[in-house]
Every structure is written in C-alpha cells, then in structure tokens.
Please model this.
Amino acid sequence: MLTKLLKYDFKATGRIILPIAGGVLLLNFVSDLLGHYVNNTGHTMPWVGVFMGLLTLATFLGMLAVLAICFFASVQRYYKLLGEQGYLMLALPVHAWQHIAAKLICGVVWTLFGFFYFGICGTLTLSALDGDSFSLTGVNIQDVPLLLLFFLLILALIAGAQLHAYLACAYAGMFTQHRLTISIISYFVIGFIGQMLSLVGTIVFAIKVYPSLDNIGSMVELQNSILLSICVIFLLTLLVDALLWALTQWLMSSRLNLA
Model:
C-alpha cells in the first residue's frame, strides 16, 4: 500500500512542480543565450544591460520559487490529508506511519530535485554572466566516504524539516477552526523550542565534553575527526527526526479531529 501512496503523491505533486520547473528552465536558457550575446555586444547597447539584469533577477526568483514549491508541495498535501481529504484518505486500510512515510519520501525526493535544479540553473546563469562554459571536476576517491556521509546528513536534515512542518500540521489537526493559522504559529513555536534545546545542548557540550576533546583530537587525523564529527551530528539529527516522527504519528493516531 505504501507504493500506491507514493505513486499517488508523486503524480499529484509532479503535476504542480514539473510545469513550473520547465517554464523557469526555459527562461534560464533564454537568459543564458541573451547573456552570451550581451557579453559580446553590450558595450554598444547599454540599455540591454538593464534588461539583462531584470531578466537575471526574474530567473533567480523563479529558481527560488521552484525550490520552495518542491519543499512545500508535500507539506501542503499532508495538511490537506488532515483536513478536506482526511475523511477519504484516512478511511483507507492504511496505517498512520504509511501516510507519513509516503509524504516524507515524496517531500525529500522533490526537495533534493529542487536543490539539484537550483544548482544547474544557477550554474547556467553564472556562466552566462561570466562568459565561461560549465565544466565538471573529478572527485578524489579518498573523499567518497566524507561525501557520502555528508549526503546522508543532508537527507536527515531535509527529513527533519519536513517532519517539523508535519508536526505543526498534525497539532493544528486537533482543532476545528483556524487550522492554517495554528499550523503556522505551531511551526514557529516548535522551531523556537528546538533552537532553545540546541542552545542548551551546545552549552552542555562545551562545558562537559569539549575540554576532553583535546586529547582525542591529538590522536585522530584531521579527516577522521571530520568524519567523526559528521557522524555525531548525523546521529543526533536522526534522533530528532525520530522524535518528530513519533509525535506526529501519535497526534495522527490519537488526537486527530476531522470535524
């Protein structure tokens, strides 16, 4: 059933994201072509530089819009799941964790697509401004474990950001009115609580743990110490994600109000 939910979510979100991304990409190609032309003849037509500046700004704003839509498309579907679509979707023989997992996987994949899309379009825009062609550089084999671990950390952070929004929506689902307002307020309140806990954790770490790291650091190479640090951050992020997931599932299973 999870695969059916994923197929349904990807299809529904793709109908929104892909046409917008395609339009912005077309605008980016036009800006790229015009940028190369302006670099060669712009000194004879000064007004073209103003036009290109506005076009580049519009392209950049379009890329940001695509990235935002990629992230919030899944959040919007989860919000609707607890509202107008709840009577239909939650009546299916599907567990709450499957609904959360489907929305989360869809949101993480689309957000990664948004970052990749933003990187490609940004590279095209910069190449048009500088007049240089895009080139890829090889990856050192020794950096593969670090890059892989860093990628996993990015996945965990994106999942945490999605679950943060889901928890705010799930809390607002307990109420019958003003759910959108409550969701927005809850999102910022949960974020503030998380920041305060992170600050307290940082202080405790600095007082209790950091003084003993000098001896450890002298015995560990720089690259291994970086790997160890990212591993610790990754594990802490997974714990936070698990807590957000547990709270969201509990609210969906026990406290949801569809009235």
